[in-house]
Amino acid sequence: MTDHSDAYIGGGMDISGNTGIGVLIDMGSVFNSLGGNTINNNSDDGVVVNDLSVLKFAAIDTITGNGKLSLECDNNSLVVGDISTLKKVDCSKTHLATAIQ
What is the per-residue pLDDT across 1-27, written as a single tens digit (0 to 9) for each? Predict the structure, then answer.
């Protein structure tokens, strides 16, 4: 997704087997996941968030078995939701927010 796009995915989606990144969120785009999705077995990172983009997890997704990281973010992005179950995350300079229930 690029150029100020937005996408919503519900539960049960399977994003796997891509040659490269599973999901790229770039250039001011917004990606909302309702949870219960699987992003795995992609040859690069599972999810990459760049350039003033937003990733929002309403519930937990399974992001495993990708060639590099599960989640990679640059320092101009925002991640909202629980990413505590994800391994291999590089979002150290990203704005991380946990939703309050």
Answer: 899 999 999 989 999 999 999 999 999
Q: DSSP of 26-89, one letter per residue?
A: -SS-EEEE-S--EEE--SS-SEEE-SS-EEEESS--EEE--SS-SEEE-TT-EEES--TT-SSE
94 pLDDT band (50/70/90 cuts)?
low
CB burial of residue 100 (10 Å; 0-12, 13-18, 19+): exposed
* Three-state secondary-structure class, residue 101: coil
Place of tokens 């995350």: 89
